[in-house]
């Protein structure tokens, strides 16, 4: 039973850590399927987390915090879209620039507004998302095996966690069962053919980056309004880059994104739980190595275990309309 309890606790942590990864990876899926590479997932999440924490503290409203996060993230996405779609600039440079600008500006604004070293004040209960208790969770808590799985693993998470997992089938349905999704995938493979059919390539790509902004906004809001009680400097801690790695690892497919993010979330949860733990035959592993473990294994998995990941053919290439 001790092993089962450890499994439940690790699974709980995996779900919590995976939530922003799933949302950010799905955000990247929409843009990259449309042919716009987005390295700026990290910056959008960080800007959204800062906006959510700041507005939720000022208004004492978690809803306003969530809306602010999505608004800021969409605005950053539109900046990326203007630079890479309208101005046909480098999509990589634009994304990296967003990451650097947001990383610096959140600290400067946080210090100027709240005088707490770049962080926002701690949020009250009204400024944060609570936990959802599923029906009969308390009644089933003492039932062997089934009780802990339902009451502790499936129940008791933030509303945004359930939104993240729900968005996986929703994203699949949008991309593969709607006219918008068909056109979005087509513009990432052959924008010239889409343009010939009388469909605006630019407008489709802008809609893709707006979808990306909304999802990144929810991911950032989760970090400051659910996983933490406010914004702290650099709180994304590379999650945007891991989400991008999960997207490539999943070969740009929604179902695979879920499993990839759960894998990376498990690695992170394992590293957090077993920092300073003495393993049999190995001994105590340095804390720094455990902290680096998710990133090390991410590189190993991407380097040798996914085979050939083929991105959309028009990905990263600005579209120039033929005269």
**Strand elements, count:** 2
Question: Which residue ranges are poorly predicted, with pLDDT under 50 across at least 5 consecutive positions?
Answer: none
The description of the largest β-sheet is:
2 strands, antiparallel
CATH class: Mainly Alpha
Oligomer: single chain
**CATH topology title:** ABC transporter involved in vitamin B12 uptake, BtuC
Strand order of the largest sheet: 1-2
Question: What do you see in this structure?
Answer:
The protein is mostly helical and 323 residues long. The protein has one domain (2-246): ABC transporter involved in vitamin B12 uptake, BtuC (Orthogonal Bundle). 68% of the residues lie in helices and 1% in strands. The chain is built from 12 helices and 2 strands. The radius of gyration is 20 Å and the shape is globular. The chain starts with a helix and ends in a 19-residue tail after the last helix. 45% of the residues are buried.
How do you describe this structure in short?
It contains twelve helices and two strands, in the order αααααααααααββα. It is an all-alpha fold and 323 residues long.
Give a quick set of tags describing it.
323 residues, mainly alpha, globular, single chain, ABC transporter involved in vitamin B12 uptake, BtuC, 12 helices
């Amino acid at each position: 039973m001790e092993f089962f309890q450890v499994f439940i606790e690790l699974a709980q942590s995996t779900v919590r850590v995976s939530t922003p990864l799933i949302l950010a990876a799905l955000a990247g899926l929409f843009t990259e399927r449309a042919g716009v590479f987005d390295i700026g997932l990290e910056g959008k999440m960080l800007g959204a987390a800062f906006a959510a924490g700041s507005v939720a503290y000022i208004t004492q409203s978690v809803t306003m915090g969530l809306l602010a996060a999505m608004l800021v993230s969409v605005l950053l996405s539109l900046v990326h879209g203007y630079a890479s779609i309208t101005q046909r600039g480098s999509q990589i440079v634009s994304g990296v620039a967003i990451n650097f600008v947001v990383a610096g500006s959140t600290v400067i604004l946080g210090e100027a507004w709240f005088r707490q070293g770049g962080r926002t004040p701690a949020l009250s209960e009204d400024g944060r998302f609570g936990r959802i208790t599923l029906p009969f969770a308390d009644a089933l808590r003492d039932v062997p095996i089934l009780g802990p799985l339902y009451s502790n693993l499936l129940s008791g998470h933030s509303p945004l966690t359930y939104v993240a997992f729900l968005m996986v089938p929703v994203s699949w349905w949008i991309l593969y069962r709607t006219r918008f999704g068909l056109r979005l995938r087509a513009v990432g493979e052959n924008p010239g053919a889409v343009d010939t059919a009388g469909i605006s390539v630019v407008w489709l790509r802008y809609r893709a980056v707006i979808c990306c902004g909304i999802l990144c906004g929810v991911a950032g809001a989760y970090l400051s309004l659910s996983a933490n009680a406010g914004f702290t400097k650099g709180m994304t801690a590379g999650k945007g880059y891991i989400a991008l790695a999960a997207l490539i690892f999943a070969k740009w497919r929604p179902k695979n994104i879920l499993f990839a993010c759960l894998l990376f979330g498990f690695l992170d949860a394992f590293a957090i739980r077993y920092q300073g733990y003495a393993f049999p035959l190995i001994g105590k592993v340095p804390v720094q190595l455990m902290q680096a473990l998710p990133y090390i294994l991410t590189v190993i998995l991407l380097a040798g275990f996914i085979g050939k990941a083929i991105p959309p053919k028009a990905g990263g290439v600005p579209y120039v309309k033929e005269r």
